């Protein structure tokens, strides 16, 4: 996942070539499920995976998280196990790769949401109801995840639920199906796996991201937020000048140009917490002011005071008076907080695998620390890992491809007697880099090329829909042979 809005797409592996389409065989109907299901289709999905392993002995892979890193891992692993070039990796296969046998695998993706949510599009999804419809695709409507698009040897299933605990030694995970109470231990389902990938990302608060877990609820949530800011005749104050605050303010002003939008930041530079050059931070401020967003620098909010409107207003509410520590005051109908610290969603993992902030300590191969039980069979990708670089969706997808490759290598070593020791792809240190959407333009920083900005940068990094089509196509969520977005 990636907030700030960033991309890896300017830094692909040199070997990557244009992919040539190839036919994908349909998947046969799964075998009957044992009469044990307690939670209907959710538990049935888990039981199918267990029954399939008993008859066809596929490897079982559990992916925790169905966003950029998790889906990249699942889909690239499906490609590799099916004899296809990995969708996020080099598209020209070597003779050795073409001669490798297909590997039977059951991949289970567990996510709290019922679909793929384009997280980096949140600033626009919470400003435009039309875009909100596009930004969330239910898993059962994503073509790449449907049974008919899967190889008979490599199946992907999605389950809506939360992972409560993981036992690294026994390779078992306890899943709480969606719709059951967290404290209802009796409803939890235990699933065994051969390989696990933690990709559940960070816990972010509203309105940085919607909190709904089902698409229908999310559309109501987004709609309520959009209507509340639309009726803000005293304007909207966005507190926090990081990437999230900048993009939220800019998108709100772009979609509703009549609205007074003010960005408030306590420091003398935007993006003050990011290890970026001043040139990049100054350019972000310049572009933001071009959108006609009012910017208050070095203003720390002290408190808000409820005020009553003198006349009736459609919102049915009064407005707020914002008091700053420097004595300045301003009025606003709505305050958007964009300063909360995101927290890794790793409470299900043993503490010895985490750093002091809850991020997963990984090796360059993306495996857990050596001292962890079965460390070579446990991987972590995306925003929840302790690694260098700014958190970005492009990096998460790149890690997912690496994890898929390394899992596939371990599988081959077990199914091919003379297969060499796994040749892991290892993650290099990631330098600071960013792509930031600011209205109709974007600013980027790349170590090799420095700071750039303009409409061309916006097009290259985000297209015309805050990166939705770019990410959809990069993961080929429309299907392995279909690159056009839905």
From TrEMBL:
> What domain of life?
Eukaryota
Name the Gene Ontology molecular function terms of this record. electron-transferring-flavoprotein dehydrogenase activity; flavin adenine dinucleotide binding
An example Gene Ontology CC term for this record: cytoplasm
What sequence ranges are listed for the domain FAD/NAD(P)-binding?
Answer: 59-400
The cross-references to Gene3D superfamilies, in alphabetical order and at most eight, read: 3.50.50.100
| Protein name in the entry | FAD/NAD(P)-binding domain-containing protein
- The protein's organism comes out as Diplogelasinospora grovesii
């Amino acid at each position: 996942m990636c907030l700030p809005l960033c991309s890896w797409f300017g830094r692909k592996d040199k070997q990557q070539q244009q992919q040539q389409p190839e036919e994908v065989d349909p998947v046969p109907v799964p075998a009957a499920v044992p009469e044990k299901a307690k939670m209907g289709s959710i538990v049935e999905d888990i039981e199918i995976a267990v029954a399939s392993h008993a008859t066809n002995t596929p490897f079982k892979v559990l992916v925790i998280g169905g966003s950029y890193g998790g889906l990249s891992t699942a889909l690239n692993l499906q490609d590799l196990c099916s004899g296809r070039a990995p969708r996020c990796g080099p598209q020209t296969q070597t003779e050795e790769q073409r001669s490798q046998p297909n590997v039977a695998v059951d991949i289970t993706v567990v996510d709290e949401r019922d679909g793929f949510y384009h997280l980096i599009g949140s600033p626009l999804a919470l400003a435009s109801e039309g875009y909100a419809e596009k930004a969330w695709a239910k898993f059962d409507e994503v073509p790449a995840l449907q049974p008919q698009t899967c190889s008979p040897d490599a199946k992907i299933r999605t389950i809506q639920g939360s992972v409560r605990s993981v036992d690294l030694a026994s390779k078992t995970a306890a899943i709480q199906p969606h719709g059951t109470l967290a404290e209802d231990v009796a409803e939890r389902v235990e699933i065994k796996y051969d390989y696990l990938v933690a990709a559940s990302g960070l816990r972010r608060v509203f309105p940085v991201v919607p909190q709904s877990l089902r698409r229908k609820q999310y559309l109501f949530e987004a709609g309520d937020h959009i209507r509340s800011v639309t009726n803000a005749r005293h304007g909207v104050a966005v507190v926090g000048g990081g990437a999230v605050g900048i993009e939220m303010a800019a998108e709100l002003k772009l979609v509703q140009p009549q609205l007074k939008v003010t960005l408030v930041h306590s420091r003398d530079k935007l993006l003050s917490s990011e290890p970026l050059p001043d040139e990049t931070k100054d350019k972000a401020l310049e572009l933001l002011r071009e959108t006609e967003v009012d910017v208050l620098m070095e203003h720390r909010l002290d408190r808000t005071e409820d005020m009553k409107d003198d006349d009736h207003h459609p919102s049915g509410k009064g407005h707020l008076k914002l008091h700053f520590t420097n004595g300045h005051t301003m009025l606003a109908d709505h305050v958007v907080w964009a300063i909360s610290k995101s927290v890794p969603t790793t409470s299900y993992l043993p503490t010895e695998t985490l750093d002091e902030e809850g991020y997963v300590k990984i090796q360059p191969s993306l495996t857990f620390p050596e001292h962890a039980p079965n460390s070579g069979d446990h991987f972590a990708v995306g925003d929840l890992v302790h690694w260098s670089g700014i958190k970005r969706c492009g990096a998460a997808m790149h890690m997912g491809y690496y994890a898929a490759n390394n899992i596939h290598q371990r599988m081959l070593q077990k199914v091919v007697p003379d297969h060499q020791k796994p040749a892991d792809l290892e993650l290099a240190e990631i330098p600071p880099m960013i792509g930031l959407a600011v209205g109709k333009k974007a600013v980027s920083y790349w170590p090799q090329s420095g700071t750039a900005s303009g409409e061309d940068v916006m097009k290259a990094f985000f297209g015309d829909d805050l990166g939705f089509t770019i990410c959809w196509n990069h993961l080929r969520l429309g299907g392995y042979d279909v690159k056009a977005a839905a």
